[in-house]
């Protein structure tokens, strides 16, 4: 019987290509039919290996979930960017490759990011999700997030609603 190692760890510059690939697959799966096609392609193409390499080298908080020897997902997080929301931290992105969704890996990655934020003194946190992304909104609700704000974001000619979920100690 063999055992597959599953770990969450800080991303290294050597992970940039795999994180970019994960981003590409996850965003196509999550947003196809929600974000207009040309806009989705632009967003994906902006986050190639060089972008991730630079972000990781500059100290952005990026954690990866590794299944065996494959990066299955990532989370990018730090201080809350929305001044109107009085929460300390924010998970900017949390994505898994489609074949790793629904297996509890997202919960594990979320818990690791939240723990890292809390250990850095960021005791409360928020995460934004597009309202039409039902799997994401259901995921954050299932994790105990309470909806605290609504807003919208433009993607080319289309304006999409988004919601903020928050957690405190």
Automatic annotation (TrEMBL):
Superkingdom, natural source: Bacteria
Entry keyword set: Acyltransferase, Ribonucleoprotein, Ribosomal protein, Transferase
GO molecular function: acyltransferase activity, transferring groups other than amino-acyl groups
Annotated SUPFAM superfamilies: Acyl-CoA N-acyltransferases (Nat)
Residue ranges constituting the N-acetyltransferase domain according to the UniProt record: 6-169
UniProt key word Nucleotide-binding: no
Gene Ontology CC annotation, any one: ribosome
PANTHER family: AMINOALKYLPHOSPHONATE N-ACETYLTRANSFERASE-RELATED-RELATED
Name of this chain's protein: Ribosomal protein S18 acetylase RimI-like enzyme
Organism: Bradyrhizobium sacchari
